[in-house]
Prior knowledge:
Elements: H1 2-12, H2 19-115, H3 121-141, H4 152-178, H5 181-187, H6 189-202, H7 209-228, H8 234-262, H9 272-293, H10 296-302, H11 309-335, H12 338-347, H13 349-359, H14 366-387
Helix pairs in contact: 2-4, 2-11, 2-13, 3-9, 3-11, 4-8, 4-9, 5-13, 5-14, 6-7, 6-8, 7-14, 12-14
Amino acid sequence: MSSDYKLDIVNNQHDPEDPGLNTTISSRLSQERIHNQGMMSINNFTTNAERRALNERFLKANKAAIDDNVSLHVNGEERHHLHGSAKKSGPLVAGTAYCISSCSMIMLNKIVLSSFNFDAGISLMFYQNFISTVVVVLLALSGRISVEKLNWKLVRVWIPVNVIFIGMLVSGMYSLKYINIAMVTILKNVTNIITAIGELYLYRKRQNSKVWTAMFLMIISAVSGGITDLSFDAVGYGWQISNCVLTASYSLTLRWVMDEAKKSTKSGSLNEFSMVLLNNLLSLPFAIILILIFGEWDYVIHANVIKLPIFWVVATASGLLGLSISFTSMWFLHQTGPTTYSLVGSLNKIPISIAGILVFKVPLSISNLFSILFGLFAGVFFARAKMS
C-alpha cells in the first residue's frame, strides 16, 4: 500500500494547493494508518495470546514440578522414617532372639538331663550336633548360606580346637545335670578370669584395674555361692570347673586356629557358618568313640525314657536351639558390636538364673540368694569394665 501511494504522487505532479489532491492524499493516509494500526493490533493480540498461553503452560509445569517435589519429599520422609524404624528395631529384635535362644537352650538341657533323668550327656551332645549339621548342610545346599568346602588340610588344622569344643560341651552337660542353673551361671564367671589370665600370658594383653576388681568380685561370689549352696554336689562342681577351663581354652585357642584355617581355604577366609559346620560335623566321630568308651550305647538302647515321644521333642528342640544360638549371636553381633554383645550376654544371666530357680524349685537360703545376686552384679560390672 505504501509503494502504490508513492507511485501515484510521482506520475501526476499536481499542485499542492489542489483540494482534490489533498483529499485523496489524506484519505489514503488515513486508510494506510488505519490498516497499519489494525495489523499492529492483530499482531499485538496474537503475541499477547501466545504469551498468555506460554505463561499458563509455564505455571502449570511449575505447579506439577512443585507437586512432584512435595510428593517425593513426603515419600522420602516416609521411606526414611521406615528405614530409621527398621534400623532402630533391628538390634532389639536380634538381641531378644539371642536371649530367648540362650535361655531356652539351658532350660531344655536341664529338663532332658534332670527331669527325664537321662544319664547320657555325650549321646545328647551327639544328637544335638547331628541335627545342627543336617540343618547347616540343607541351608548350604539351598543357597541360603555359604560355607567353605572342606578339605583334609582344613580339617587337620581344626581338629585340636574341635577336641576342646567337645570337652566343653560334655562338661557343660554333666555340670548342668548335678548343679542348679543359677549356680552354673555364677560359676561360669570363672571362665572370664581364666581367659583374662590366659590373654595376659599368651597375648600380652593387659587389663585395667576395673577388670581385675570385677574378677575379684566374681571369685568372692563363686566361693560364697558354693559354700551357701544347699544342693551342693562335688561331682557337679568338678564338671563345672572343668567346663570353665575348657571354655577359656577354646576361646584362647580359636583365635590362632582361625588364622591358620584361613590359609587352608580357597577364598582365604572362614565365615561363621563354616565354623559352625566344622565344629558340629567333626564332633560326630569323636562323640561316637566316647559313647562306646563310656558305655553309653548300652544305656541308651535300654533306657525307658527314649520310648517317650515328648523326650525326643524336647531333645530335638534343644538341638535346634543350640544352632539358633550360633545364628542369633552372629546376627546380634552384626547389628550391634562386641561391647553390647558382651554386656547383654552378662545381663542375660539374670533371667536365666531366676527362671531356673522358679521352674525347678531350687531350695535357697538368704545367704545363697545374696551370693547369686552378687555374682550377677559382678558379671555385669565385668562387662562394663571391659568396655572401658
